[in-house]
Amino acid sequence: QLQLVESGGGLVQAGESLRLSCTASGFSLDLVHIGWFRQVPGKVREGVSCISSIDGSTYYARSVKGRFTIYRDNAKNTVYLQMNGLKPEDTAVYYCAAVHEITTVQAMCLEHFESDYWGQGTQVTVSS
Fold first, then answer.
1. Do the bridges between strand 46-51 and strand 58-60 make them parallel or antiparallel, or are there none, so unpaired?
2. In the predicted model, what is the mean pLDDT of residues 90-104?
3. Is 52 helix (H, G, I), strand (E, B) or coil?
4. Cα–Cα distance between 24 and 32 in angstroms, integer?
5. Is it the case that residue 12 has pLDDT exceeding 90?
6. CB 59 within 8 A of CB 48
7. Which of 35, 72, 103, 117 could make an SS bond with 98 (beta carbons 3.0 to 4.6 A apart)?
8. Which residues are CB-neighbours of 114 under 8 A, at least 6 positions away?
9. What is the reported pLDDT for 86?
10. How would you classify the pairing of strands 3-7 and 33-39?
11. Cα–Cα distances in angstroms (integers) from residue 31 to residues 14, 16, 83, 88, 91, in the given order
């Protein structure tokens, strides 16, 4: 079965950190481009950060740039999202998605491409 599984969400206070994990089963993550997206009920889904499988290039939304870091561990078939300096406005359900072909990581995060796989999501709640 081909699937993505997110983990690492939770409840933290503003200023604290979390690390989200996106682990694949049934396929290798180093063959796909990976993006982290987040959604708050009633709001449009936002592309937070994306990473290329070809050259490791990354993209960050302006709202998280400088605070979040996306990186791969191909040996563990996992992509991480390190989130530092969390703010209440980062509260959302975070999803990872995989795409086989893109033009740029920015285009992936802007959802110019339909993702091939989605995880089930992990809740991140940041209290003030």
1. antiparallel
2. 95
3. coil
4. 11
5. yes
6. no
7. 117
8. 99
9. 98
10. unpaired
11. 35, 32, 24, 34, 30
Please report which confidence band the pLDDT of residue 113 belongs to, taking 50, 70 and 90 as the band edges.
confident
| pLDDT band per the 50, 70, 90 thresholds, residue 1 | confident
Q: To which residue do tokens 């990581």 refer?
A: 105
Residues 6+ apart with CB under 8 A from 6: 20, 21, 22, 94, 95, 96, 119, 120, 121, 122
What integer is the mean pLDDT of 84-94? 98
DSSP code string of 97-128? EEES--S-HHHHHTT-S--SEE---EEEEEE-
DSSP 63: T
